Each structure stands twice: as C-alpha cells, then as structure tokens.
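Q: Second attempt. The first request was missing the SMILES, so the protein and flavin-adenine dinucleotide are both included now.
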Amino acid sequence: MNTDIKQKFCDLLGEERVLFQEPMNRHTTFRIGGPAEVFLVPESVEQICGALKLCREEQLPYFILGNGSNLLVSDSGYRGVIIQMDRNMGKIELEGTEIRACAGALLSSIAAAARKASLTGFEFAGGIPGTLGGAVVMNAGAYGGEMKDVLKEVTVMTAEGDIRTLPAQQLELGYRTSIIRKAGYLVLEAVIALEEGDPQVIQAKMKELADKRTEKQPLEYPSAGSTFKRPEGHFAGKLIMDSGLRGYRVGGAQVSEKHCGFVINTGGATAKDVRELIDHVVRTVEEKFGVTLEPEVKFLGEF
Ligand SMILES: Cc1cc2nc3c(=O)[nH]c(=O)nc-3n(C[C@H](O)[C@H](O)[C@H](O)COP(=O)(O)OP(=O)(O)OC[C@H]3O[C@@H](n4cnc5c(N)ncnc54)[C@H](O)[C@@H]3O)c2cc1C
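A: Got both inputs this time. The predicted holo structure:
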C-alpha cells in the first residue's frame, strides 16, 4: 500500500488510531497470526464510515475484527485493512428492561450490566469471550441460550455506507449463522430485550455456568473455543475423541485432552499447525464415521 493511502487513514482517524504491520497474535484469543498491513481503531461511526469509503475508493480488502475469539489469522498476516470494533466502540446503555450496546461491547460486560440492573435472559452469554458484533454475526450461543432469543434489533452499516436498523427477525439467525456476513453488513449496535429478575438468582446462574466452563473447557490455553460446529445428531468433541484423536498434535497445536472439541495452542503454535491439525481431524472423523465436520472458527489471510 502506498504512503499516500496510509496518510489518508491517518488524516481520517488520527495517527494514534492507525497502526501498520500490527501483529495479529495480539488481537486473537489463539495468540496466533502475522501482521495486518493496516489496523484501524476507530472511535466513532463517522470514522468507520470514512474508513470504509476509503477502502472502497482504493479497492482495498477490509475485515471487521471483534475480540478475535473465533478467528485463526494466517502466519503471513493480512494484506488489507483491519477495522477493530472492540472496547473502542463498547458503550452500553440501559433503557428500561432493554440494553442498547455498541458492537464492540464485550458480552461479559453486557452480562454484568444486566446483572447489576436485575435483568435476566443474558446469563448464557456472560462466559463467551467475544463482542456483541461478533456474537450477532454468528448467533453465538451457550447452555441452551442464543443471541436470537434476546436480540430485538440490530443497526448495521451496509457495504455502501448506509445505516439501517433491522428487526432481529430479518437477520435469518440460525445455528451459528446469520445473513450479516453474506449481506456484507457491519454491525454497529444492537438492542437486547431482557426481563426483570431476581439479582441473586441471576448471580447464581452466572456462577453456575462459569464453573461449568472452567470444569469442562481448557481455558488455561489459548484457543478459539469450539473449533467445529455441532454436526446434526452428533457432538464434534465425542466424534473426535472416538476417532482416537484426543491429545493429537501438529507442532504447537493440539486437540485438547480436556475437551476434544477444542484445538489449543500449547505454546508457539503457528496458524499452519492449527490448520493442518483441523484438516487432519476433519479427514479422520470423515473416514471413521462418515460425518463431515465444519469449522466454526473463521480463517483470515492466506492458508
Ligand atoms: C474459550 C472460548 C469459549 C467460547 N465459547 C463460546 C460459546 O460458548 N458459544 C459461542 O457461540 N462461541 C464461543 N466462543 C467463540 C467466540 O467467542 C464467539 O464466536 C464470539 O461471538 C466471537 O466474537 P468476537 O467479537 O471475538 O468475533 P471475531 O472473532 O473478532 O470475529 C468473528 C467474525 O465476526 C465478524 N465480526 C466481528 N465483529 C463484527 C461487527 N461488528 N460487524 C460485522 N462483523 C463482525 C468478523 O468479521 C468475523 O467474521 C468461544 C471462544 C473461546 C476462545
């Protein structure tokens, strides 16, 4: 990318909000990933709009990043523009029994705000380490709850830069999917509809779910959570375990011994290690059980 374009990003956002060759291992829960050519940390919708317009004009590829908790970035990084929507865009507001939050708000922060306001319905999401935007895109869910159950409306920016507020019913929210990626939308904010509840019951539920996660998941290692989607009629972790792959390694990447549905970074794993391990798991499970596992984790960059 030429210096003129780089300067234009700096003029739009201010120099302190534009990083070059930013290592993506700092921004993914896998702690893996080479440098992003340009890494933007916008603080307003206007800045996002301006950055997208510049990407369109200069025909630069761009990618919206939340908390990087469902993402494997290539070792060679990303040749394009990363737009981060994380704590920099994380405002949370209470409106009666509803919560309006910017896309970068962490689910844990929203869950804490709901608990403080004695609102129930969001306990399921408190332990998912992503942003609201990332959770809307893939209809994140856990322990019997999913975003679909609580989302009222979502404000998006279209690829052309228009801002639209859509009722949740129009987002085609299904198991770990929505129309957002297909439509090329960027999630700006969302309204979550909850109900009044008993603060002690809410607190107890959140603790119960957090304890379950600690007991079952390898939270002591970097990962991107469940590596595969749940295939219909099966559990990915059980299929992987029954294929004899518990603890199977490629370089620093390993099928977790604690929960076979997780690929973990045991230290120094490369994206290539993780990708090879995922491909091996998919092949092996297919051979043994005739079930094709589909990665839930998103891949960014060249593999
Ligand atoms: C330990 C651990 C446990 C996990 N447990 C669960 C779980 O129980 N349930 C579950 O569903 N997931 C779980 N996950 C996976 C992950 O946390 C979720 O998928 C989360 O919703 C991803 O959000 P993110 O902000 O990190 O998104 P990222 O990983 O940053 O991005 C994921 C995708 O969303 C897109 N995206 C992000 N923000 C926006 C936006 N504002 N607008 C448009 N597109 C956007 C990105 O472009 C990318 O395609 C877990 C992960 C870990 C590491």
